[in-house]
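During the no-cost extension, the postdoctoral fellow (Dr. R.K.) reprocessed legacy sequence entries with the updated structure-token encoder. One reprocessed record is reproduced below for audit purposes.
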Amino acid sequence: MNSNIRIKELRQALGLSQEKFGKKIACSRDVINNYERQRANVPPPTELAIASAFNVNLEWLRDGTLPMFLETKEQSIDKLAKKYGLDDFMRKVIMAFAELNNSEKDAVKKFIMMFMPPDDPEQREWLKIKSSSEPNLKLNEPEDVPMHARSQDDTTPAGKQIPKSEIKAALAERAKDDDDL
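Re-encoded structure tokens follow.
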């Protein structure tokens, strides 16, 4: 059996007419009919379009290797949730994390690392961020601080530069104050 015959099998499994099947991959009904009747060979770009449009296993389409359909992201996460006894909330967390881009994933990892014990490097190992997107901060390097970033009672002249170490200390103090609330 070749991909021509499997196209017909797939189309029938999906319950689609040749016209509706063709529209999903930008082909006419006549082209689909020619494939199914083996009047034309299915070119690799069309095989890829079919695999993408219908979540079909490309190996199945080309040589019959099962399964016909690829596992969806939702199915994979559902299996994971079942295997580890995760509730619906955790399933949604995993799904949301999977939808993030790499920089957003890095930010979430950094946030989680804030709550992990600092003396357990093995526990943190799985969260290590492999991107180099984080700027290299030199704490004694001065930074211009714009006026709108200061509180109204700050008497520091507008043109003064403040070392990053002081900024970091002030932010840490503010975070501590916020935690006390």
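Strands lie at 142-144, 161-163. The longest strand covers residues 142-144. The remaining legacy entries will be reprocessed before the final report is submitted.
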